Amino acid sequence: MQNKFKHFLNKYLLGTSDLTEKKVVEDFSDNLQKRPLIELKIIQENSKLRSSIYNSIKYKTRERKRRKNYRLLSIGFSLLLVVGLTIYQKNISVNNQELTYSTSNELAKHIILPDGTAVTLSSNSTLIVSNEFNQSNREIKLLGEAYFQVAKDASRPFIISSDNFETQVLGTSFWVKRNIVEVSTGRVKVSNLLDRENYVILTAEQKALLKDHRLYKNTIDVFSCISSTSSYLMMNNITLTQWKQIIEKEFDIQIHFLEDIISTKEFIQADFRNSTLADIVQSVSYMYGFDYKYENKTIIINNTKK
């Protein structure tokens, strides 16, 4: 593991690293800066090493302060590699076969894969990317929930193996949840991992539902769609404008106000994780006293509070 990271670091310093290798190094650096050394699990075993590290860095800085910044970066990374690796592995782990992204209880993570695909990884979820990704294939593994905006590549389908099924696409945007795949745009093939002959082809505004070990295709009722578990849905004293932006992004819809209620001074404080769009809109409409209707992926809101 350490040799693998040193190889990434050398390429990073030489400016020859690819997107994945660059992210590994920069995320490692961010984690070292954000967490104090006292949090290290190996602090007792390495107290002398830690002291030696800082003395060495201090000495090297004093003796070679006129050298280029990348030399200091290299020294710092090399010396902190042994003790810092424990911190780094809490969020991203790397081995010879794969790169793993994980999220905590309340934090979502936004990821750009080497092919340009954008992924929003929900809380308590894991994304596993092979080192062969974007070279010989575009295959990944998902444990949990994520929203994908897949970069188009007709020669190499994008394949996601999740808890219960396999999702294959060429270029589209969609949600993959534990038992549901919801398609916003494009065309998706969803296969049952327990029965490959049981599959469905989805297009925009359609979803696949796994029930009793069988896949079924249905039209998406946007008001029945359930939100993710992303932390930004835990709303703490946000404005109606902020709420509008969050809900539009979460459900891929538009919200239009017929009257000026944006300037209201009331604030929203609620946890809308794992909630239907209908429940979310109804809750806020009760607070603000507005009526609403849904037409062509747009929620039209009319203020009735006088």
TrEMBL record:
Keywords: Membrane, Transmembrane, Transmembrane helix. Gene3D superfamilies: 2.60.120.1440, 3.55.50.30. Residues 232-301 form the Protein FecR C-terminal domain. InterPro entries: FecR, FecR_C, Ferrdict_sens_TM. It holds the Pfam family FecR_C. Residues 100-189 form the FecR protein domain. PANTHER family: PERIPLASMIC SIGNAL SENSOR AND SIGMA FACTOR ACTIVATOR FECR-RELATED, PROTEIN FECR. The keyword Electron transport does not apply. Signal peptide: none annotated. It comes from Myroides odoratimimus. GO terms for molecular function: sigma factor antagonist activity. This is FecR protein domain-containing protein. The keyword tRNA processing does not apply. The chain crosses the membrane at residues 70-88.
